[in-house]
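Sanity check

After download, print the first record. It should look like this:
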Amino acid sequence: MHALKKNRPLRRIVLASAATVSGMVLLLSLKPHTTPSVALGATSPAPSSSASASSGSSGSTTGTKTVTGDSVQTRWGPVQVRVTLKNGKITDVTAVTYPQENPKDQQINSYAIPQLTREALAAQSADIDTVSGATYTSDGYRQSLQSALDSAGN
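Expected structure tokens:
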């Protein structure tokens, strides 16, 4: 007797559902993330635990300022960014410190950090979207960026 006989439709439904779910799980788990060709601002994290600021012009919105935000401790490690402002506009954002202790951190942040940087430059603020798969890094990046912008007076 065949296991999928017509007089057992519930068994066919259960087996078809299980096969579909298994196939979807396999497809989603094997999808690799593409690494963007944008170079990261920093190749290794700089050991720093506090905010520092250096400015070419203090107290005004003209000139060029470079400000390092607070180091934000996340579940996977600290995140800290440095922002460069020219005449009050964000011209560069560099991740100074971010989790990269293991291959998984390196893989996630190799696509998350450049995407967060592009978002910050486009938004000209810390009001940026979270990168899927890098929630903790995104939150730390946003908080550090906001602290840098606050220190710069933006």
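If your output differs, re-run the checksum step. Summary of this record's structure: Residues 72 and 79 are 5 Å apart (CA to CA).
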